[in-house]
Specification:
Elements (H helix, E strand, L loop, with lengths): L1 H33 L14 H8 L10 H15 L1
């Protein structure tokens, strides 16, 4: 019985050590991958995009929604059904 407990303890220790090593290697790999994204603080390329849109754009026309007309139409349809 003692031999079985020793084997289980050794397996648990080796498993924990391997898990720690894998965790460390993956964490180090992820940190190295994020180094490629350091240049995202340079947003100067996008500053002039809005200027081009304002010069070339045509004035927009908006259509208002007349809710009173829809209500009257619905009421007239109800009156016709009765």
């Amino acid at each position: 019985m003692k031999k079985l407990l020793k084997v289980l303890a050794v397996v648990a220790i080796v498993g924990a050590a391997l898990g720690g090593i894998v965790y460390y290697l993956k964490k180090r790999e992820l940190e190295n991958d994020f180094d490629d994204f350091d240049d995202f603080d340079d947003f100067d390329d996008f500053d002039d995009l809005d200027d081009d849109v304002e010069e070339d754009s045509v004035e927009r026309v908006y259509t208002s929604i007349n809710l009173d007309a829809d209500e009257k139409k619905a009421e007239s349809e109800e009156a016709e059904e009765e």
